[in-house]
Structures are given as C-alpha cells and as structure tokens.
Amino acid sequence: MIKQKIIGFILKNWKELVIILCLSTMAFKTHMDYRTLSKAYEVSNQAMETQLTSLRDIHAQELRKREEAIEDYREALIQIKRDHAAAQEQLELAKRKKKSVYVRQFSQDKEGLANEIINAYGFELVE
What we know:
The radius of gyration is 49 Å and the shape is rod-shaped. By secondary structure, the chain is mostly helical. Helices cover 93% and strands 0% of the residues. The model has no long low-confidence stretch (mean pLDDT 91). The chain has one domain (2-121).
C-alpha cells in the first residue's frame, strides 16, 4: 500500500523529482568546486607569502652588499685623497727644490739656465 502510493507519487511527479535531483547535484557540485577553489586560493596565498619572504631576504642581502660596497668605496676614496695629498706635497717639494736650483743658476750661470730652458721647451733666446 505505501509502496504503491510512493510509486504513484514518483510516476505522477517524476519531472519535479528529476529537477530536484538535478538541482541537488548541481548544488553539491558547486559546493565541491567552491571548496576546491578555496584550497587552491590558500595554496596560492602560501606560495605568494613564501615568494615575498624570499624576496625580502634577497632585498636585505642586496642592501647589505650595497652598504658594504659604499663603505669600500668611501675607504678607497679616502685612501686616494691621502695618496693625492702626499703626491701633491712631494710635487710641491720637488717644485721648490727646482725653483731654488733655477734661482741659484740664474744668479750664477744665466746662459746655462737659458740653454736649459731652450732645450726643455724649444724656445729661442731673444736679446
């Protein structure tokens, strides 16, 4: 009796029952797709976080290397300035010595000094 009523109900409303079954299947499938997408999103977020962390580490290393390079540059620049100052001092000393030699030579041997200047610079002596 109950079986016949159920069979009668199914035969009478089979279209509605198929629609309900299809909608239920679609709702279940949509829910499963949503869960899959949610998991994929979480995995993607974790991968992005890993990439960001590694990029931050690389950036920090690059900043350290840059600071080291700048410090090396500053030290090299200071050393070059010291060497330049020492060379300038030696040049000034040599210039003073040569000047004193020329002054002494001018007062003692004017013609020898003139010949030396002519030979060094290619000038001709005009009297």
